[in-house]
Amino acid sequence: MKSMVNRIVLVLVVGALTSVAAFAKVQKHKVTFENDTKVGGTVVKKGTYDLKFDDQTGQVSILKNGKAVAEAMAKVEPREKKAGDFQLRSTTAGDVAQLVGVTFEGSTSDVVISNNGASTSGSNQ
Predict the structure, then answer these.
(1) How many Cβ atoms are within 10 Å of 1's Cβ, its own excluded?
(2) Which of 85, 86, 90 is nearest to 39 (CA)?
(3) What's the predicted TM-score (pTM) here?
(4) Cα–Cα distance, 102 to 86 (Å, whole number)
(5) Mean pLDDT to the nearest integer, 58-64
(6) Which of 6, 11, 99, 124 is in the most buried spot, having the most CB atoms within 10 Å?
(7) All structural domains of the chain with their residue ranges
């Protein structure tokens, strides 16, 4: 009887841990920056990169060959309707663009990058 209860508890714990992992969503998309673009506090040189957003941590990462070259914190804001395609939003000040947001195709929310006190890492590529 005791071993049966232990098995039931074990199944419930594994199920609970699996369901938490199922809610975490990491979205990726290949992006090409036509100009040097600032992401958080790091200037990313023009070129093609992988952009990754982890909705559990709220972090946007720009990756080159699997290595993070820039990271920034972001928040999710609802949209009125689903996005028809992938969108990058940036502002320009002088010669450097600043990434301010991302929307993934089919998403009902926008990812808005927090540029004040953003986390940065890596080197420019």
Answers:
(1) 5
(2) 90
(3) 0.71
(4) 8
(5) 96
(6) 99
(7) 25-114
- Distances from the Cα of 125 to the Cαs of 37, 51, 70, in angstroms? 12, 14, 10
Alpha carbons 2 and 12: distance in angstroms, whole number: 16
3-state secondary structure 25-61: CEEEEEEEECCCEEECCEEECCEEEEEEEECCCCEEE
98: helix, coil or strand? strand
Containing 14, the helix (H) or strand (E) segment is helix 2-23
Q: Residues of the chain with pLDDT > 90: what percent?
A: 62
Total Cβ atoms within 10 A of residue 70: 28
115 has a pLDDT exceeding 90: no
Find out whether 42 and 113 touch, Cβ atoms under 8 Å: no
- Identify the helix (H) or strand (E) that includes residue 23: helix 2-23
Helix (H, G, I), strand (E, B) or coil at 108: coil
Q: How far apart are CA 33 and CA 19, in angstroms?
A: 36
Residue whose C-alpha is closest to residue 75's, from 41, 42, 39, 101 = 101
